[in-house]
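@channel sequence for tomorrow's demo:
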Amino acid sequence: MKFRNNSLTLTSALLFVFSITSATAQSGCTIPGAWNYNAAAIEDDGSCTQLICDYTGPRTITFTKNPFQNPLPQDVIGPGLTLRRGTVRGIFNSAAEGAYNVGAEGPADTQWHFGGVNQALPFVSWKDAIAIQGAPGNLFSILSTDPITTMRMISTGWVFEIQWHTWGKQSQGAGCSYTRTFMVEESGCQEIPFGYGCTNPLAYNFDAEAIIDDGSCTELNCDYVGYEQVTITKNPFQNPIPEDVISENMILKRESIYGIYNGAQEAGYNIPAGGPADTEWHWGDVNANYAFTDWKSAILQGELGNLYVSLLSDPVTTMRILSTGWVFEIHWQSWGTQPQGAGYSYTRTFIPEASGCIEVPFGSGCTDPEACNYEADALVNDGSCIYPGCTDPEAVNFDPEAGCDDASCQFPPADCPADINEDGVVNTNDLLNLLAAFGETCNPLLPTCAEDIDNNGQMDTNDLLAFLSAFGSTC
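structure tokens (generated this afternoon):
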């Protein structure tokens, strides 16, 4: 029995270790175009990146040239740099050097130093940095103490750490092998997230270039239905004129050296001096401390519509649509004058907060089926749920916070004086009670005077008429 328990414990432990190992091995970057793509990864862990520079090679590559191997393998790093080794001399750049009998200085277009990239050593030639043992390029005795060198490609600035595994001598057929790793920051590159974003075309911040949805999709809680960002370009002398359609009543256009105008409200391109109808402007971004005013007062310098002077120092303006309150930042890229055919381009970005809007997770709403405003299509609960209750202020259980009526209202007993015996129905039994007391007088304040329906102190014809009008009713 003890053996069986130990077997189960061992099996459970092995399964646990296997599950942890498998989970680790299966996660990584699964987007093939990413800089750190992992072909062995099954589940994407959100780590995919891309480089902001012109290096397109792999992060790490292992190069091996076996002894006496022919043809020679070569390490193609990029245009202008292909490392090879053909003799017991050092490696050479076959893209820039015609023969493998490399010059004494080393591979063309490269500089080197011993140690990793973080060592504060100057870059020098291969000969000065590496080939200090016998013939140029003889690394075999150095590798035993320091197998790492750093190489920089002079023409591009790319930097690599190279970890040497083998370096053959004459009798070993001049074989060699190393692992080369690209150094992102030292090469002047930037590594940024790749392929993640909002992939839902219906979302406010839809990213057409996103490959994997990162849960960032949003929507606006206002009536703006355009894109978050739009780039408009009108090439010089271009026809027909491109239009920036913001809404049914706001279409920005430009057709001459004059300023842009609102094509939805203004008939001609010879724009009034004030500027596009239904707009206000100021220089700078939305946080700039400027008051909104008309286009002419805020934007124009010199000749009407001539932005090119101002764009040199401050290419950002802010526009507000008067009728809607929508606010946009406009980043100008160009503004043509007369000889340039009145071309222009800008990127327009909607500013939700300044427009009185709130950006909320896409598909948000009330997700509670018990609520009055339950939304079956809502994906994220936004805290807007309101619940049913009694909405009648006359009811004893009136709920001022109720969002809809659930028919639960309760009211005080109805004033039903004709129901003399209080059985809930005005019927013959009540009539008999009234007739038995007919003609008597009583104090209407006493409970024993139930037959005095009109409370005048007498059981008379008026009581009989009141009774007959209520006969048959329920209370």
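heads up for whoever presents: Residues 2-26 form the longest helix (25 residues).
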